[in-house]
């Protein structure tokens, strides 16, 4: 990997080089994970939660990218909807992230690890019950 922590993805250098920052991979992976049905959201840090409350969406929230000599490792920290099959949704998240990164960056990902950090109960039912009382 290059010293400035970017990935060089250009094969033909006659026109120049193309480099992708790890933050770009985080954003692509975060969006791809949120697209999967059954994913309620991503776990973020206190700072990212405050930033979102101020109106700026953090698409890389809950995604950690590690650049190693063996390849790119991605860790996704997600909250799933209650009642979904966790193994099936997690596998779909892995496939969706790998496909999105392959299409957009032509990078091969060594591994995508999905960490289910919570289950979200359906909020609409809870709101309806409060209105009924």
Q: Please, could you describe this protein's structure?
A:
- The chain is α+β, with helices and mostly antiparallel strands and 133 residues long.
- The chain has one domain (7-132): Alpha-Beta Plaits, CATH 3.30.70.1350.
- The protein is 38% helix and 26% strand.
- The protein has 4 helices and 6 strands, in the order ββαβαββαβα.
- The protein has helices at 22-34, 46-53, 86-105, 123-132; strands spanning 7-8, 19-20, 39-42, 63-67, 72-81, 109-120.
- The strands form 2 sheets. Strands 3, 4, 5 and 6 form a 4-stranded mixed β-sheet that branches. The protein has a two-stranded antiparallel sheet with strand order 1-2.
- β4 and β5 form a beta hairpin.
- α1 (22-34) packs across α3 (86-105).
- The protein is elongated, with a radius of gyration of 18 Å.
- Mean pLDDT is 81; it is low at 46-50.
Protein traits:
two-stranded antiparallel ribbon, 4 helices, elongated, 133 residues, 4-stranded mixed sheet, 38% helix, Alpha-Beta Plaits, alpha+beta
Characterize this entry briefly.
The protein has 133 residues and is α+β, with helices and mostly antiparallel strands. The protein has helices spanning 22-34, 46-53, 86-105, 123-132, and strands spanning 7-8, 19-20, 39-42, 63-67, 72-81, 109-120.
Please report the total strand number as a whole number: 6
Helical content (DSSP H or I, runs of 4+): 25-40%
What is the CATH architecture annotation?
2-Layer Sandwich
SSE order, one letter for each helix or strand: EEHEHEEHEH
| Total helical elements | 4
Unreliable spans:
46-50
| Class by SSE composition | alpha+beta
**Percent of sequence in beta strands:** 25-35%
Indicate the radius of gyration in whole angstroms.
18 Å
* CATH H level, superfamily name: Cation efflux protein, cytoplasmic domain
């Amino acid at each position: 990997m290059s010293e400035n922590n970017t990935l060089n993805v250009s094969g033909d250098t006659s026109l120049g080089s193309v480099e992708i920052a790890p933050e770009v991979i985080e954003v692509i992976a975060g969006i791809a994970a949120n697209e999967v049905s059954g994913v309620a959201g991503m776990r973020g840090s206190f700072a990212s939660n405050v930033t979102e409350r101020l109106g700026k969406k953090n698409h890389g929230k809950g995604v950690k990218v590690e650049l190693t000599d063996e390849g790119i490792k991605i860790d996704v920290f997600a909250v799933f909807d209650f009642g979904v099959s966790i193994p099936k949704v997690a596998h779909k998240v892995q496939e969706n992230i790998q496909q999105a990164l392959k299409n957009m960056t032509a990078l091969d990902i060594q591994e995508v690890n999905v960490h289910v950090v919570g289950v979200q109960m359906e909020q609409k039912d809870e709101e309806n019950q409060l209105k009924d009382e």
